[in-house]
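Following the same procedure, sequence and fold were stored together, as reproduced here.

>
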Amino acid sequence: MRTLALAIVVTAMACSSFAQNVGIEHSVRRIIRNEILTLLPADGAGGIAIAVLIDGRLLFFDEGFADLAARRPITPDSLFNVASLRKPFEATLLALAVREGKMALGDPVSTYLPALAEGGDIRRVTIGQLATHTSGLLLPHDHPPWPTTRYTPASFLEALKAWKADADHQPGRQHIYTHAGYILLQLALESGLDYVVGDLAEQKLFGPLGMTSSWIPRHGKNGRSDLPPPLLQRAVQGYSEDGIAVGRPGDQQTYYDWPGTGQMYSSARDLAVFLDANMGEGRIAPPLARAMALAQAPAVTTGPHSAQALAWEIDTAAAPTLIDKNGGLNNTSAYMGMMPDRRLGIVVLSNRGGIDVAQAGRRALRQLSKGREPSH
């Protein structure tokens, strides 16, 4: 009789757990449908891949086409050009180097790129300022009207040495988002650690985390990345805001004419793994966990309820705190955000340009967090 009673209790607990999981998935699906999937283009040119981390579970929601002409659907493992979502990875590499004593946020960038010691105001810019967009650096290729010229390594260094910090662009005095600053940070990382950034990411992040679908191209030519064939087969076709195919799967866009300066490729599944580790959920080595914590720490106040960390942006306007990053090009829209206090994370990737997946992702996270207690 006692054995039978125990079996009944265990069965009841299993049924309750199953019902709870089904209820959570139904609630998440409703929020995703209302807040994000409404962004799907009606013409079918492009789609959306979504990954949600909740209570230690990983849920996927995929709609639309990776390639409309081939009728190839979006999946959790479709590869997207993630645009500026690459920046938190470089920031984490920097944080690792800082924790290991190999670099320091207060070091002038010329410490690692001695050629810049011959320049003017660039000599005042530090590694930390580059990582937090507070260097004041702004080059013509950072903003419209977009130039048609491209930088070589030599011409980029010359442009940096010629850069003048006017009253509105002083190192350490303002927050101005700059792509050139992160290209410069990449060069400093490569010089300071004596590895190309793609190899650094593979050795320090992708490999240890098991991110098998992420790649920072090394040797792309004519706008093509060097994605390995198995990954290239899963790369999406990008579409403009108007639904016109832009380039080919695996294409990159960059004004910097040397390897490693284009965008990173990844999948919703892989980016969810990265978020999971950043929330302290995955089993990762303590040095990497400490580096991720450093990269997320508020470094510069940017508003009454916002701050800039190393690449990550922090929103404290309403509890719980939201830490996120968005990115986009004319043929891709990307977002990843997390609420570590609530064990919540979301990735939203689209192969259509001009879609505001960032605001949609933030709304979804706020909805998902309602009524949830802080995790311990």
Observations:
- The mean pLDDT is 92.
- The CA atoms of residues 119 and 161 lie 4 Å apart.
